[in-house]
C-alpha cells in the first residue's frame, strides 16, 4: 500500500512577501497556548517549520531537550538552519518531511507542533493521526490555524471583501481548507484524540508600522507570489482584479483608524497512555 502523500498545493508559496510574514512569527506570538506545557528536557517535532523562527524559540525553551523542524520544501530549510545558527542553538536539526507520512518511529517525541499547517494539507485527519503516532504516550499534540472567514477589519475598504472571497476560493481549489481554525477540534476527534483542549487567540494589527507591514505583504503577495499565479491561471481572478485587490490593501494600510484582527483556533491534545 503506497504512503499517503500531500495532495494540496501550498497556497502562499515562499515568495519574499510570504517569508516577510513567516519570519515575524515567534513562540510567544504564535504558540503561547503550548508554552506552559513545555519542560526543559522535551523532544519536540515542529511540522511546517518554514524559516525556523518558532523552531528556534522552542529549542531555546528546551535547553536539555531537542527540536526537529521539518518542512516539505527543501529550500526553506537552509534559512531555518541559518536562523538556528545565528542564535547559537545546537539542540535543533531540520529535515524534509510530508506530514501525511512522517519518517519517524512511533512514540518518538514529547511534543508534536504544527502552526498554520493543517489549513494547507490534503487530509488533515490523516496528518493528525501521523502526529499522534510519533508522539510519546501522555505527550502533546499542539496545532494552531487561522480561520479566514472570521478575519475582520476596519475601515470597510470594499476591495478587501474581494480579497477574502478570492483567497478562500483559491485555497479550496488548491485542496486546502482556509477556515481550518474552527475545525481543529473536530479533526482531532476524528483522528482518535479524546483529551483535547480547544482555545483561540488573535493577531491584531493597528499601529502605523503594523498596518504598513501587514497591508504591504498582502498587497505584494496578491500580485507577485505563487498565490497570484494560481489565482490567475486557475481562472479565479484576472491580473487587473488582482491589482485592484492589492490597491485595496494599500488603501487600508493608509487609514489612521485601520484595524485588522486574525482569529486562530488552537488545540492542545494529550495522547493516551
Describe the structure.
- It is built from 11 helices and 8 strands.
- By secondary structure, it is α/β, with parallel strands linked by helices.
- Strands 1, 2, 3, 4, 5, 6, 7 and 8 form an 8-stranded mixed sheet that branches.
- α7 crosses α11 and α9 crosses α10 (226-233).
Write the layout of secondary structure elements.
Blueprint: H1 16-22, H2 27-30, H3 32-35, E1 43-47, H4 53-61, E2 66-71, H5 74-86, E3 92-96, E4 109-115, H6 124-133, E5 135-146, E6 152-154, H7 158-173, H8 184-190, E7 195-205, H9 208-224, H10 226-233, H11 239-253, E8 259-270
Parallel strand pairs: 1-2, 1-4, 2-3, 4-5
Antiparallel strand pairs: 5-8, 6-8, 7-8
Helix pairs in contact: 1-9, 7-11, 9-10, 9-11
Distance from first to last alpha carbon: 28 Å
Q: How are helices and strands ordered from N to C?
A: HHHEHEHEEHEEHHEHHHE
Proportion in helices: 40-55%
What's the total number of strands?
A: 8
Radius of gyration: 18 Å
Structural class: alpha/beta
Output the keywords.
273 residues, alpha/beta, eight-stranded mixed beta sheet, 11 helices, 40% helix
